Amino acid sequence: MTAIDIPGYVIRREVGVGGMASVYLALQTSLDREVALKIMSPALAADPTFSKRFLQEARMLASLAHPNIVQVYDVGVTQSQVNYFSMQYLANGDFAQRVRLGWSEKDLLRVLEGVANALGYAHLRGYVHRDVAPGNILFDASDTPILTDFGIARAFSQTARITSAGISVGTSHYMSPEQARGSDVDARSDLYGLGVLTWFGLTGKPPYEGADGFAVSYAHVFEPIPRLPPGKEHWQTLIDKALAKDPAERYQSAEEFIAALAEIEPETQEEERQEAPTRVLKRDSLQVAASRPSEAPTRIGVLPGIDPSLMKNQDSTQTQAAPGRSVWPWVLAGVGALLIGSVGYLLLANRSTGVAGKAVATATVAPSGNPQVSTPSLPTQPDRGAEAASQASTAETAPPVDALGDELFATELDMATVPTVLDPVAELVRLARSDLAGQRLTNPVRKNAFERFSLALMIDAKSKVARQGIFDVAKAYVDLAEKSLGAGNLGEFVDYLAKAEQVAGSVPDSAAEVAQVQSRRQVEVGKYLDAAQSALADLDSDAATAGFEKAMQIDPGNQAARSGLQKAKSIGKPGYVFRDKMGTGSGPELVVVSSNLAFSRRETTRGEFASWWRAEGRQKFSSAGASCRDRESIFRSSRKRDWSSPDITQDDSHPVVCVSFAQATAYANWISTQTGHTYRLPTPSEWEQAARNAPIASCTSANLADATYNRVFETKNGADCNDGFAATAPAGRFPAVSGVFDLDGNVREWVAACGKSAALTASCREHGTRGRGWASIASKEQLSDANDFAEDVSMNSLGFRLVRELVQ
């Protein structure tokens, strides 16, 4: 026992000690499970450097959830400043012990692949282990290799090192050359250590020996790669590349190392040729076998490692399992455990009551693989006169309790007196429902609802209650997700939904149940996307960014969130294009031209103007319609000509014409009301600023009077070139200038001015225009020319566009 007191743990004994910390076998009382409790040496706790390294290891391990990496359950500091963390307890030996006991190359390949997978996982998350040695490869109860001791690991990008530059850290026999020199290391250094581990697994010793650590380090840096002994030459190619002195010549990733392992043809050994290799297990209980230890103990947030082969459908006449891994031993073990419990109870009872009659119970396996029990003959009952002698004899000759299992199959029993054996599926379901009610969903290991329901379904693939039980576990995780979301913890919401999807997906043919979980996720994603899109419309960069980031946190692969996040970064900057919401539709397309102003990218179209006209324009202006001039001539003016009948060919995509200044202003006010933002006509200076970069007009850059104009209107004033349009062209047909289309050509545009350029006042009756239109003669007019007309004047070559004020 120890005087160290860690709240929540009962320390049983010390199992290891190092220069920085000691490791104890302890019981975590809250979950009733054995753990390895690593406690920092009190003498070092006062040094912040060592405390930082110790906590770094705990946090690093807690972030690495992988079946071949030791799992951290808890980390903390007591009131007396004792640093500790608890982790998976591994009592099945280490790599060096396996080598000493002897193993096949097939086993070595399996273990190396597991360690390589663990390293690859850590490398992808930015960590280098830096101490891949036999003592840091342990095995769990299911013989899975587990990578431990990340005490000197560090992130690739970590700039503030705990160890000083130029000091080598690690186990000298397994150090890479660059690590031995104290240089920077990366993932390839771990792969070198994996190569040394391979050599050790093949030969039982490291590739380089020396009188001390310096001599061994020197050998790693300067001595040639050694040759394997006879019979192991088929590994030499892998060894040569893994132990290359130059990191650039080694395997560049764990995946490459695993691919090289796949090329190894393992040496055929006698035990590998046997149909069922014998594996020594020291007094393993059938109960442990029945409950099937998982590949990695479960912690909060990590599902237990259910063997995928045990989750497949099993036909009543044929067991389907991975080659070499029959499902039935587990089933028999589970049934056997329950049977032994019942029969063992009877044996003990028989010893005390003097039962003399015996019957033989023999377990057999039918061709289908289902266990059957033969019915024994009934024994004769002893007379009561012999009871005392029987009890005395039993007391003297009864084997120890540990031998009860050996005695069971050699003792004849009266099966009529044996208590009824429990249905293993029903019992597992009963226990699982109790776990479900107690929120033991996937923890603790082997004593949780998910694993019990899964084992029941493995025994009976047609069990509807076991199948539904797994879905109920998934539903419980969804409920936890909802509670976390209600409490404002989005991270937990995401994690719980991921667990729900993983649990539901463990059952064959569960697409509908998995889709329900995914649908719940998408509902929440949709809420954040809608909020972010609204923020985009309001040009609120912070709110839009937050919304898109939360959507991506829930669904990292969501393309709408990803593209929206990119768009949010450009909000309010010149060139940013957007539309405001307007009723069930949207307002004009706008482009930001300055910090406080956005321009309509196109002139207001006939289709847009028609919406306003139907809503309120007809009521305001139909009785006071002004004459509309044709091609700007006062001699070709008619009251029959208006925006809907301008005497030129148009559709809804063309800019609206025959619109007075008053109508244009009324339209801007209506858009403002519909969107909740301030829209108006541009001022002369705003219009001129936007048009300052317009190119010299040609038939490819602006719609002015041209050859088609000359032909249709029987004139020779137009240019010889041809843009294909006699009158207006569709808005946006010609190239944009700073994101704004048709600043030159197509139609002249009203501007907010009194006269040509003066500030607008309520009493003003003459208003300015800018630009040139489809009837303008390029040789006679310039883009910079300004004109003004009475506010009730309209022309079929005169239109308008709006600007929107941006709130600062």
Explain how this protein is built.
With 808 residues, the protein is an alpha+beta fold. The protein folds into five domains: 9-88, Phosphorylase Kinase, domain 1 (2-Layer Sandwich), CATH 3.30.200; 95-268, Transferase(Phosphotransferase), domain 1; 285-422, no CATH class; 473-571, Methane Monooxygenase Hydroxylase, Chain G, domain 1 (Up-down Bundle); 582-805, paralog of FGE (formylglycine-generating enzyme) (Alpha-Beta Complex). Helix content is 38%, strand content 13%. It has 25 helices and 27 strands. The chain has a five-stranded antiparallel β-sheet with strand order 1-2-3-5-4. The chain has a five-stranded antiparallel β-sheet with strand order 12-15-16-27-19. Strand 7 and strand 8 (145-147) form a beta hairpin. Helix 18 (490-505) runs antiparallel to helix 19 (511-537). The protein is elongated, with a radius of gyration of 41 Å.
